[in-house]
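Hey, resending since the last one bounced:
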Amino acid sequence: MNEKIRTIADCCLAGDRIGREQIDILLAEARRDFFDLLYWANKIREKFFGNKIKICSIVPGRLGGCDQDCKFCAQSARYETGYRQAQVLSDEQILKAAEQAESNGVANFAIVYSGRMVGERELSRLQGLIKQIKQRFGLKVCASLGVITSRQARQLVDSGLTRYNHNLETSEKHFGNIVTTHKYADRVRTIQTAKDAGLQVCAGGIFGIGETDDDRVQMALELRRLGVETVPMNFLHPIPGTPLGDAKTLQPREILSIIAIYRFILPQTNLKIAGGRVLNLRDPQSWMFYAGANGILSGNYLTTTGRAVKEDMQMLTDLGLQPDSD
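The structure tokens again:
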């Protein structure tokens, strides 16, 4: 048993925050004792979340046609990916997706919009849809609508929105290498606006976009500082036509190490494994829970195919885990 990893794990299990020196030790020891790292990450997950796994499904309320230049994203109108024109789903399509989520036993449902922000008319429509989804299906509703003002955030709270998603994507240092059409500070400000309005926040990022270990740690520390409740962890699924279309995907062991390190840094935060998990993790996919994850995005993603909710539910059953209805 690696005593350095165990000692740091004991701090996490006691509810203490670890510092940068301890994180650097974990990064070094992870390369020598990968299975010890996962063992203790799993112990931390069990301590704070038991055997419950949060499941979320999403629907693209507006797909494509985005004027931003995130280098990993197929939805940018700047790239030749087939999503240059925005497609907006109807009320009926969004409600149908919510009904399907409820019938699959999914407790959390997110409406995701491409683009920097939504207009007032579209926001008003969404307020009505959020109310209907909660009343008809009893789902907790999350939205990802880009930049929002304080007034818009309060309107979303009044409509019954539970959580707002706005990812940092990477560290502040690396952000300008990936996005140039807006600033890292814009994302931090939006997260703070949502929190100030009383919304829970779902904010994470994407790995495999040329970031370093330090970038990964810096993002985790910033998410900890911001006090977000849920951290979605995406792993690059290279899309032809984007600037990162030829990037190599991360190896499963590296991904599992990233998840485990995040569990140590964020012991009581929901870690949700989202985009790219099927492509990148392959056969060891179920190990993400042993690495410390306590949530998954299930079903299809925005521009890539995910895994059927039925298959994910069976995976949880086989592992002795349970969907979290909270």
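The longest helix spans residues 120-137.

Sorry for the duplicate.
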